[in-house]
Amino acid sequence: MKVFKGLIIAIISLFILFLVVTVFLPSEYHIERKIEIQAPPPIPFYLINEFRNWKYWDTWWHLDTNQTRTYFGQILDLNSKFTWFSKNKDIGQGFVQCVEAKPFESIKLSLGFGYEFQSTNHLKFMHLGDKLLLTWSMHGDLQFLGKWFRFFLDDVIGKDLEINLKNIKEISETIAKNKFAFFNDTIPETKIIFISDSINNNSANLSQKINACLLELRQFANQSKKSSNSAVGILSLKSIDNKKFYFEVCLPVANIENLQPSERIKIGTIPKQHALRSVYFGALNEQAKIIDVLNYITSQNKIEPKGTPLLIYYTGLLSEKVNENLAIIYIPL
């Protein structure tokens, strides 16, 4: 009886000691991995900042390609978010949300895994001569008993970050080398304000004209107190004849309620539709070049467009290095 009583006392003492140690264990954790990439910052930045790209490099997607992923937000929306759900217990359910994005410099993400594990993720893009150093860091706080998991986090999560960075590097360097990448995708429904315009086919001022339209649209959005993604300009190609190039310059806005259109600025919605999404790295600031790129995409993929192509000038049109511009091209299927 004394032995049994002593055993009970020992177990209780160890349990109390365990609880006391747990209380004083640090709750904060920090995991960080880095990789060098032979590609300009806009390419890996886009691969991360556009959540529909994640399934092409995210290690959690490859663990269960049947998982359900639901996307929220418009085209390249700052507050974009996606959730996932899997019957695979190693993946479970969770979410990723963009909290802050400084174009081609940094991205801040909020990540939730299950009901308990949440973290803040920072991705930083640093120039190293002709290379890029991409750093992915993750930090957060662990709840009580979860503090013990802190001793294994760096190995477990760090390995996933290494795989993700390696995949991002491979895709980024392929795009930089081959100039193109193609993805089957869906254009999300997007509220827009837009200007219809045209330009002579032999004019060399397409870039300036599109940027002038974007400036006008941003001023209209600001005056109307409507938030917009100022980094994104969408060119909708309407038609081309022997003399003129007809187009619409569009700016995504959070909502179009109470907006009053003018004679020049109109309000509309890009409908949700299946599309081929092409990533193009190179000059796209002339009418002839746009036509050549569109013809190349359709011939390479053997497709017939079933709607108006959309061009997103991800890095802007007036960059000094026009050959290092990044454009996203949606062709409805």
Structure report:
With 333 residues, the protein is of the alpha+beta class. It contains six helices and 15 strands. The strands form two sheets. The protein has an eight-stranded antiparallel sheet with strand order 8-13-15-14-10-11-9-12. Strand 4 (93-102) and strand 5 form a beta hairpin. The longest helix is centred in the middle third of the chain and has 29 residues, at 150-178. The radius of gyration is 25 Å and the shape is elongated. The mean pLDDT is 82.
Structure described in brief:
By secondary structure, the protein is of the alpha+beta class. The protein has helices spanning 2-24, 42-49, 59-63, 150-178, 206-223, 287-301; strands at 28-37, 68-72, 81-85, 93-102, 106-113, 117-128, 131-141, 180-187, 190-200, 234-240, 244-252, 265-270, 273-281, 310-313, 326-332.
Structural class designation: alpha+beta
Number of distinct helices:
6
Helix amount? 25-40%
Strand order within the widest sheet? 8-13-15-14-10-11-9-12
Please give the alpha-carbon distance between the first and last residues: 80 Å
Strand content: 35-45%
Whole-number count of domains: 2
Element string (H = helix, E = strand)? HEHHEEEEEEHEEHEEEEHEE
Supply the CATH class of the largest domain: Alpha Beta
β-strand number: 15
The biggest beta sheet, please? 8 strands, antiparallel
The CATH fourth-level homologous superfamily of the largest domain: START domain
Q: Provide mean pLDDT, rounded.
A: 82
Rg on CA atoms, Å: 25 Å
Shape: elongated
**CATH third-level topology of the largest domain:** Alpha-D-Glucose-1,6-Bisphosphate, Chain A, domain 4
